[in-house]
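Researcher: Next sequence.
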Amino acid sequence: GVVAVGPSTPYLTCGPDLLAGASKIKVHWSNFTAMTGVTSFSVKLCYTADKIIERPWRKFVGEINKNKQCWQTAKLAKFLKQGIAFESSGELEIEVPMNTAASTYTIQMLSQNAAGNYLEWGDSVKTSCKITTTSYDNQPASLQGVQAFFCVFSILVLVVAYTYDRSKQA
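Model: Next structure:
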C-alpha cells in the first residue's frame, strides 16, 4: 500500500512541526489489497533512519513484530492507533500523544487479520516529508529562576548549618 502524510497533494510539502498532545497528523492511504481475512489497520510512528544511529534500543529489524524503530513513546507503545476499519484507501486524523518524544518520524500502516497477523504494510518514508514533533516547554523562565534561587539558597543554608554545628561541637 501507499501511505502519505499531510494536508493535501503533493504530500512532499512540509508542514509546521507538530506539538505533542496538541497537534494531529493527517494520514492518507491507498492501494491496499482487500485480501481474505483482512479486518483492520494499525498505525505506527517510526523514527527516521538518522534517529536510530547508535541507538540499539531503536534498532531496525526486518520483521515487523520485532522492529524497535517504531516504538515511539516513553511507554514503548507499539502503535499510534489500532483497530481502524479496513478500507483499501482512505484518510484519518490522529492526535500526536502527549508522551511522544521530540524527533522526526514516518508513518507506517499495517493491515491485519483477526488473529493480529500483518498481511500488508505501507510507509510514508518515500511519499511524504518527515514528521517533526516538538514537546511543550513545561517550565516558564520565571519558574526556572525561582528553582535556581532555591537551589543556591538551600546550598547556602546547608553550609551555614554545617558551620554552625561544627562550632557548637568544638
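Model: Residues 141-169 form the longest helix (29 residues). Residues 2-134 form a domain with the Immunoglobulin-like fold (CATH 2.60.40.1930).
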